[in-house]
């Protein structure tokens, strides 16, 4: 009984230490990205195409250019819904709208350009899949939660945790921490 109380106290102090100390891992939680491949009607890769990624909620855009392999990457995007527009002289402009970028996710948007003038436009209506095949990383709990879960398993006590993007609440052995 006495050892369990000390373990609870140590875990509580560790929680406070981790929660209230600056941590670079918590600062990058609200970002994602969009990557893709631009091809022509024959399936050949198109280099030098202008790719514009626009946040539909804020109307902020970033422009990138496809590399020699026809690939592009827009990194460090805030979570939200985006449209991807691809332009290249000699091809019709292609637009993929409603691309969802989630926390720590990379959406893949491959676009096939059609031959035509730049004044013509192709609207792509199929949504990209939500399955992330570009990275092997998985979402994980912050270290403080992992420590709480481990101590709960070792001491046969109950633990609950509630999270939102900016708020948290931990309950452990009658102690509650909110932030």
Number of strands: 12
Uncertain segments are 158-166
Please state the overall shape, judged from the principal axes of the Cα atoms: elongated
CATH homologous superfamily caption of the largest domain: Carboxypeptidase-like, regulatory domain
What Rg is obtained from the alpha carbons, in whole angstroms? 23 Å
- Count of helical segments? 3
Strand fraction equals 35-45%
Number of domains: 2
- Biggest sheet: strands side by side, in what order? 3-2-5-6-9
From the N-terminal CA to the C-terminal CA, the straight-line distance is 29 Å
In N-to-C order, the SSE pattern is HHEEEEEEEEEHEEE
CATH topology term of the largest domain: Immunoglobulin-like
Outline the biggest β-sheet.
Answer: 5 strands, mixed
Name the CATH architecture of the largest domain: Sandwich
Structural class estimated from helices and strands: alpha/beta
Average pLDDT figure: 75
The CATH first-level class of the largest domain comes to: Mainly Beta
Helicity range? 10-25%
